[in-house]
Amino acid sequence: MKTSIITFDSDLGVKALKQGKVIAFPTETVYGLGCIYSSKEAFDELVKIKRRPPDKPFTLMGGNKFSFEDYAYLDSKIERVISSFVPGPLTLLLKPKEHLPYHVTLSSPTIGIRIPGLKILRDFIDRVGQPLLVPSANKSGCSPCINSSEVKDVFQGEIEYIISYEVKSSLPSTIVDFSTSSPRLIREGELSFDKILEVYNKEN
């Protein structure tokens, strides 16, 4: 398979995703790999390319039209965090709704959801018409790629398209588990956990 560099304006990336293929694209943090969330075959291909254990779920990434309530359970404190920091470099681990396909949650008690701060990416996901499953663009255990050249070096011949765009940060998103009684930091990235806690614990 030939790996080609394209832009967000191209319809090739949208078409490939709708066909159940995996492509690479930038977020406002590091590069990601993505496939449509509804396809088990696309999920299997993503696992294969990522070299990742098949029992570890991927983050769900939405665009401008994404509704958290359709995929996860929220409360007023979580809604306040979403209102303050989303879109942005934050992945929220939430209790998933029961109707989601098995490969999306893999029976995990949480689902990771992220809406990227990069508007051109959110617009792109809206054109695809459904959320994507998105891990960072790297082989499991390696550092995330931060530009299209790095992605091509790592995934040459394994993915058809890489969207080229300048990434502003080399830090991944902050991951916080909101599924328990108090938020738990899983990974601190560009967004400070202290800022998140301050908003979460703010009195109404």
Describe this protein's structure.
A hairpin with a 6-residue loop joins strand 9 (174-177) and strand 10 (184-187). With 204 residues, the protein is α/β, with parallel strands linked by helices. It has helices spanning 12-18, 40-50, 76-85, 102-105, 119-128, 148-155, 193-200, and strands at residues 4-6, 23-26, 31-36, 60-61, 90-94, 111-114, 132-133, 161-163, 174-177, 184-187. It is globular, with a radius of gyration of 16 Å. The mean pLDDT is 94. The strands form 2 sheets. An 8-stranded mixed sheet has the order 2-3-7-4-6-5-9-10, sandwiched between helices. A two-stranded parallel sheet has the order 1-8. The protein has a single domain (4-200), classed as DHBP synthase, CATH 3.90.870. The protein has 7 helices and 10 strands. The relative contact order is 0.26. It starts with a strand and ends with a helix.
From the structure above, extract its key features.
204 residues; two-stranded parallel sheet; globular
Q: What is the structure about, briefly put?
A:
With about 200 residues, the protein is α/β, with parallel strands linked by helices. The chain has a single domain, classed as DHBP synthase (Alpha-Beta Complex), CATH 3.90.870.
Any idea what the shape is?
globular
User: Which structural class best describes the helix and strand composition?
Assistant: alpha/beta
Radius of gyration: 16 Å
Number of domains: 1
Low-pLDDT stretches are none
Classify the oligomer.
single chain
Task: Give the SSE string.
Answer: EHEEHEHEHEHEHEEEH
CATH-defined fold name: DHBP synthase
Please identify the top-level CATH class: Alpha Beta
CATH architectural grouping = Alpha-Beta Complex
Strand content: 15-25%
